[in-house]
Each structure stands twice: as structure tokens, then as C-alpha cells.
Design goal:
The protein has one domain (4-442): Aldolase class I (TIM Barrel), CATH 3.20.20. The protein is 41% helix and 14% strand. The chain contains 15 helices and 14 strands. Strands 1-2-5-8-9-10-11-14 form an eight-stranded parallel beta barrel, surrounded by six helices. It starts with a helix and ends in a 5-residue tail after the last helix.
């Protein structure tokens, strides 16, 4: 039975404007789905969320590095154990490289087990004169361009809950197995290097990692199989239904994932998302794009982290390669001057989306690397800690982003595109990105 405080804690947002919410056509069906979720077991528990907050406090204090990544939008029809394990393995391999690069313990967080809803720039999509609701992720409607598929169906939120539970079980099993060990991660990186066009450069760094004896630092708290789950907290009906009060403290937690974030389109100070997030005790994040101003950002931080608690709030910069060096410095300077204990993380994906000649969304590898480089230049140059990366990636052999060591081009996209929304880096591109950034950091490009 769900206690009353847990339900009340997730409802205060309802009196405020909520952007990017679906227009559910059947109120009775919505009520039934919400009732089912409200009566369901939590997917994560407060103790796990508090542990992640402790880990992220180390990131905010410059004592750890965050590696966060996974699908742009998970698919209910493609909950595949092998794909999930490959993505989890890719994250651990990235942790190996980035941990050595920064000489710090690594906090590893997946965009998994809940990333089923997406904000959209338009409410409808038109093809050949036919207008239908936009695809908003499998938690809302289907990708197929038909009236039946595109009609929002709240029962999908129940399916998302079940799929997320299955994914969490797989990830937790992965974390206790040999495949999640630091040694296995390094062996997988070696296999990548053998086939890479930059084999000689990669093998030099791998030898250094081996000589250093690993990637997790020496403070003793990091375990290679420790993988937390995150997603954008977009669908407030879903999040509120899974809000629970901790039986020991009475504090409210979103139990749909360890870390939730507010997107660039829903971070309005007077909006429902900021209200909901201000009431939960999870570690949270906010995506900030090039339109945010300094005063607005300070008010947002005050609203979401009034107690100035290290580990509570992560700021994820998604500026675009052409803007990060111009916009980010003023924000970092102002937040640092105020002594606010946030973690600074780079999302080099969302500001660099372009259209390929075939009509697909894509991203250039070089733009992604350039934004990451700019992020490190700015944050480290101002004496703050470049605290992590947030990537859309998969461990599968897809062709969605162009460039990288394997030289994927526009012509490769039609045959290798699997994402139903935004383009992801594949495993080889993800590791190539980590190696190239490591080279830049080691060359002291960032001061």
C-alpha cells in the first residue's frame, strides 16, 4: 500500500503550466494507468539515490568524474538483453579511459531503464499531406506513421514501468558479473584498439592505463560494476505516480530512476517540472543551452538546491560547438563566484544535430569532440572542475553519427540507422572520442 505523503509529495506541480505533456484522449484510461503505477513497487530505493548523491558530491568537489550515456530514446519493442549489456559494457570501457585521463574515480550512470519519452519541437508531423501527432517516445505513442500508432496511449506508461524493471534486473546482473570488471573492460578496449585506424596511438594509452593499474583512483569507494540509472523526468503523470516517501525520513523520492534531469525545453522557473523536481530528494540535473542567462541560472539553482547540498544538482551544458566558448564562461564564472556546489558536465550531442542529405538527423564526430574540447577549455581555464560527459551512445554496431576513426559517412546512414529519434555514437565512435579527448587533456591543451 502506498502511503499518503508519498502521493501528495508528487502532486503540487498540477496547478502550474506543464510543457511537453501529451494530450491523452481518454481520461479514464489515464486514471487507470496512473492507479496501476501508484500501486506498483518502486524501481529504485532511496538508499541507492542517496549513494549516487554522495558520488556526485565528489564530482562537484573535483574529486570524481561522471560518465553518463545511453539511448536517445529506448524502445519498448527492442528490450534486448545483448544490446543492454553491450551498452553497459561500453559505459564501463569509457569509464576506464576517462578515469585514467582525469586520474579520478568514475561515477557511471546509464541513460537507461526509463528513457522512453522525448520533448518535441512541434506537436504534429505532416507527411504527404497527412498530419498526425508527433512521436513523443514509446511512453506516449508509437513511431509508425499511422493514426493508431500516433494516438497517445497512457497504458504505454505501464509498459514502460515493466520494461524498465526488466532492464534494471539485467543491468544489476551485469554489474555482479565478470564482464563488468575493470580487467574485462580493459580487455574489451584492447580489442577495439586492434581494429582501429589509430591503433598505435590507442595502444600507447592502453599501456599507460595498464601500468597505472586501473582507472578508479585509490580512495576505495568506486566499484567497476556500480552503474546507476537516469532519464529525463518529462512525463509528470508517470513520475508523480512513482513518487514515494522514504519510510525512515519522510522525504519524497522519484523511484523511477536514481537521477532525473530537466530538459532545456522544460526548465521554466514557474513551470511544473521545476516545481516537481524541487520536491524530490534524488540527485537531479538540468540541461542548460545557449539561451540561458546568468540571473536565470542562479534563480534556477536557488529553487532546485536551496540548501546548497553537494551532489544534489548537476548542470549539463549543451551549447553546440560554435557557442560553448562564447556562452559558457560567463555562466561558470558567475556560479563559481557565488560559491554554488554544482557539478559541471558536458552534453556535446544535442547542440550539434544536423540533417544529412538522406533526410536523417545526424551529428558530426568532429563537432562533438570540438564541443567537449571547448567545455574543458572553459571550465578548467576558469579554475572549476570539468566534471563529466553526457553522451547519447549505444554498444551496438549502428551508423547514425558521421566521422570518427572508422570514417562513417552520410552514405552509411540509410543502412545503419536504428534510432527512432536522435543519432547515437556507436561503441567504436564512443571509445574513439574518449581516446582523442584524453590526448588533448594529456597534451595540456586546457591549461
Amino acid at each position: 500500500m502506498v502511503d499518503v505523503p508519498s502521493i501528495r509529495a508528487g502532486q503540487t506541480w498540477r496547478s502550474l503550466p506543464a510543457k511537453q505533456q501529451p494530450q491523452w484522449p481518454d481520461p479514464a484510461a489515464l486514471d487507470a494507468a496512473v492507479d496501476s503505477l501508484t500501486g506498483s513497487l518502486p524501481l529504485v530505493v532511496p538508499r541507492e539515490c542517496d549513494l549516487l548523491k554522495k558520488r556526485l558530491a565528489a564530482v562537484a568537489q573535483g574529486e570524481a568524474f561522471l560518465v553518463q550515456g545511453g539511448d536517445c530514446a529506448e524502445s519498448l519493442d527492442a528490450v534486448n538483453a545483448m544490446s543492454i549489456s553491450r551498452s553497459a559494457s561500453t559505459l564501463q570501457q569509457l569509464a576506464t579511459v576517462f578515469g585514467y585521463m582525469m586520474s579520478l574515480p568514475v561515477v557511471t550512470v546509464g541513460r537507461m531503464a526509463g528513457q522512453y519519452a522525448k520533448p518535441r519541437s512541434a506537436t504534429t508531423e505532416t507527411r504527404d499531406g497527412i498530419e498526425l501527432p508527433a512521436y513523443r517516445g514509446d511512453a506516449v505513442n508509437g513511431f509508425a506513421f499511422t493514426t493508431a500508432a500516433r494516438t497517445p496511449d497512457p497504458h504505454r506508461m505501464v509498459r514502460v514501468y515493466n520494461a524498465s524493471a526488466a532492464t534494471l534486473n539485467l543491468v544489476r546482473a551485469f554489474g555482479t558479473g565478470e564482464s563488468a570488471s575493470a580487467g574485462q573492460a580493459l580487455e574489451n578496449i584492447k580489442k577495439f584498439a586492434v581494429d582501429s585506424p589509430d591503433r598505435a596511438r590507442h595502444e600507447r594509452l592502453i599501456a599507460e592505463i595498464e601500468e597505472a593499474g586501473g582507472f578508479t583512483g585509490t580512495d576505495g569507494w568506486h566499484t567497476p560494476g556500480e552503474l546507476f540509472m537516469s532519464h529525463e523526468g518529462l512525463l509528470l503523470d508517470y513520475e508523480a505516480a512513482l513518487t514515494r516517501a522514504d519510510s525512515d525520513t519522510g522525504r519524497a523520492y522519484a523511484t523511477s530512476g536514481h537521477l532525473l534531469w530537466i530538459g532545456e525545453r522544460t526548465r521554466q522557473l514557474d513551470g511544473a517540472h521545476v516545481e516537481y523536481f524541487s520536491g524530490i530528494s534524488n540527485p537531479i540535473a538540468v540541461k542548460i543551452g545557449p539561451t540561458v542567462d546568468q540571473d536565470e541560472l542562479l534563480r534556477l539553482i536557488e529553487r532546485l538546491d536551496p540548501r546548497r547540498e553537494p551532489g544534489r544538482l548537476t548542470l549539463v551544458a549543451r551549447m553546440g560547438a560554435g557557442k560553448v566558448r562564447a556562452v559558457l564562461p560567463g555562466l561558470v564564472e558567475r556560479v563559481t563566484a557565488e560559491g554554488l556546489p554544482v557539478a559541471w558536465v558536458s552534453d556535446p550531442m544535442h547542440g550539434n544535430t544536423i540533417s544529412a542529405p538522406c533526410g536523417r538527423k545526424t551529428r558530426r564526430f568532429d563537432d562533438i569532440l570540438d564541443e567537449l574540447s571547448g567545455f574543458f577549455e572553459v571550465v578548467a581555464g576558469l579554475g572549476a572542475h570539468p566534471g563529466g560527459v553526457h553522451l547519447e551512445l549505444t554498444g551496438d554496431d549502428v551508423a547514425e553519427c558521421v566521422g570518427g576513426g572508422a570514417g562513417l559517412g552520410f552514405e552509411d546512414l540509410p543502412g545503419g540507422y536504428r534510432s527512432v529519434c536522435d543519432p547515437r555514437l556507436n561503441r567504436e565512435q564512443s571509445l574513439d572520442l574518449a581516446f582523442r579527448l584524453a590526448d588533448l587533456v594529456r597534451a595540456r591543451t586546457f591549461g
